[in-house]
Design brief:
The complex is a heterodimer.
Chain A lengths: L1 E4 H15 L3 E5 L15 H5 L4 E3 L4 H13 L3 E5 L3 H4 L3 H8 L2 H4 L9 E6 L14 H5 L5 E3 L4 H13 L4 E6 L6 E4 L12 E4 L4 E5 L3 H14 L4 E5 L2 E3 L3 H11 L2 E8 L4 H13 L8 E5 L8 H7 L3 H11 L1
Parallel strand pairs in A: 2-3, 2-4, 4-5, 5-7, 6-7, 10-11, 10-13, 13-14
Antiparallel strand pairs in A: 1-8, 6-12, 9-11
Helix pairs in contact in A: 1-8, 3-5, 9-13, 10-11
Chain B lengths: L3 H13 L2 H26 L14 H9 L6 E5 L3 H7 L3 H8 L23 E5 L5 H14 L6 E6 L6 H12 L4 E7 L2 E2 L2 E2 L20 E5 L3 H16 L5 E6 L17 H9 L2 H11 L5 H24 L22
Helix pairs in contact in B: 1-8, 2-3, 2-4, 2-10, 2-11, 3-4, 3-8, 5-11, 6-7
The chains are: A alpha/beta, B alpha/beta.
Bound molecules: thiamine diphosphate (TPP) and magnesium ion.
Thiamine diphosphate sits at the interface of chains B and A.
Amino acid sequence: MAQISYREALNQALAEEMTRDDRVFIMGEEVGYFGGAFKVTDGLLATFGEKRVRDTPISELSIVGAGIGAAMGGLKPIVELMTVNFGLLAMDQIVNHAAKIHYMFGGQAKVPIVIRAPQGGGHQLGAQHSQSLEAYFMHCPGLRVVIPASPADAKGLLKTAIRQDDPVIFLEHESLYGMKGEVPEGEHLVPFGVANLMRQGKDVTIISYSKCVYDSMRAAEALENEGIDAEVIDLRTLNPLDIGACVESIKKTAKAIMVYEGWRTGGAGAEVAAQIYEAAFDHLDAPIERVATKDVPMPYNARMERAALPSPADIVKVAERLV
Amino acid sequence: MALERDKLTAERALLTLGESELLELYRRMNLIRRFEDRTAEMYARGKITGFCHLYAGEEAVAVGAIFALYDKDYVVSTYREHGHCLAKGTPPRKVMAELFGKETGISHGRGGSMHLFDPNLRFMGGYAIVGGGLPLAVGLGLSIAYKEEPEVVCCFFGDGALPQGAFHESLNMASLWKLPVIFICENNFYGMGTLVQNAICQQELYRFAEPYKMPGVRVDGMDVLAVYQATMEATARAREGEGPSLIEAVTYRYRGHSMSDPAEYRSKREERIWQERDPIKTLRRRLVGERRVPESRLEAIEREVNAIIDDAVRYADESPEPALSDLMKNVYVENGGPQS
Ligand SMILES: Cc1ncc(C[n+]2csc(CCOP(=O)(O)OP(=O)(O)O)c2C)c(N)n1
Ligand SMILES: [Mg+2]
């Protein structure tokens, strides 16, 4: 299997699906001539031409809205938001339109759009450029929320997202683009709603997604040296959510830590914890813990930013307390 | 690009402004240029991180427009706002310290390059969401009208903001309510790597004033006097209660979009053409040629400015970092909410 980056894996998925289905097209700011702000769409304009790789003005609300309309018109648009922070301008089209149209019209219309957005902090980009907003989308019924950690999942989940017919919010962590991993060539589909067991353990379950999966794995290695055996789960999609995988693990470990980069309060991990309580309260030996970003707009200063974000050390500390 | 009208307005400004005022314009533009050059150096050395967008080449817009304002007039800007903040009068020390992420910075190290704020000088912030500042400017204008005060708001934004709904909604509201807002579009031809002609159906950006029933002018943004004169006219109107104006200042950024952009989407030749129209050199030529200002005066200003910026860098470097214990401070104004 080839070792390619998360960025290349996404690029491969886009190219393959565009080749497979000529209804699939891309639009967004700087996606064509510039190859995307994070170079995910690099080279696609040359291969597929301007009709299918469309540069847009800086008009997030209408880019997403036009994508929704195009989907209703029978196309399969992939809209790239330069970052999720700018996606907030498109919230009306995402929440009031994309998420509602299928249900509100009695199942007669569908909106097969994929909205890709880089997100995350850690690069000293300040309060308006460092957010992780998956919980906003997870809160809204009608949207699928996909958030891959590995290059292979990036490819497999994006291909699935493009092929299925519901609106998908596809969130990529800005720190992961350069990360390499083994990615199957050609047809590789990862189903929605199936978590990935990253590491087996019996003492505590660490449940995570996106970049925090790697923080969790590092924490698990550190814990191993202390004789604590942690299990690590990568959720991969937040909607649908594989709560069954979490419950199975907790039956074994009786303790759980949610690790995520959204703000702690109202984060995706809070929802997962609530669902675990509902399904597996009797199996828990202790309250579920959360390691997440502090409830603060991201400061620019490097040390402060590091203190605001969750870290492997934070996870280790919480695990030690739990076990 | 120099329009007939610009030549006339610039000449008028040259006649109406005294020598000390002209030298002040020269000083401010030099201050910004030097600040930006040193910022690039400090960025390369890793003293400044994150996104950093430099203003070199565009100095005439900030300096000309803000020279037409009073201290109590408001300014709202974007992430490319070092120049606007310095032109408004914020000490370079405070701006450089912010870029270094220090507690002594103008936003106490919490904002960084894209988020400067100086309430004393009514510099109401740099915002990093394209178009995000325009509605705020309308609201500041509303607060002025509400309190029946004589101030105006000067709102800077790039050509990239015109396709945003916020631009159109803001112009409509400001015009509908006759608010004292001067919208200044810095048309530097590019939004990141995208040419204006690939993003906006109407390339004569000042014409967007027409449907919103306000005056719209295009000025040579490489000519500080033309920008000054156009802004004076707009502020006079606004202070009379006649409402907003749109000024399109045609300009050019010398460097890439941000420190990480090599600007491969444009030619070296294009860059050279614009650098020949450098706003600082243009004013210098005028001062020496038409006003007979001795070169030595101008050189003294340049030396003075260099010393100020050297001092700013030293100050920023030696300043303390914010205390980690203050991380959660200032998320709210009230600690736990009002008690009564
Ligand atoms: C709403 C939003 N969309 C996208 C971006 C990313 N972005 C930052 S600057 C920029 C280009 C803006 O160009 P322009 O307004 O012309 O200003 P300039 O950089 O030329 O001064 C883009 C697309 C953003 N910051 N905000
Ligand atoms: Mg521009």
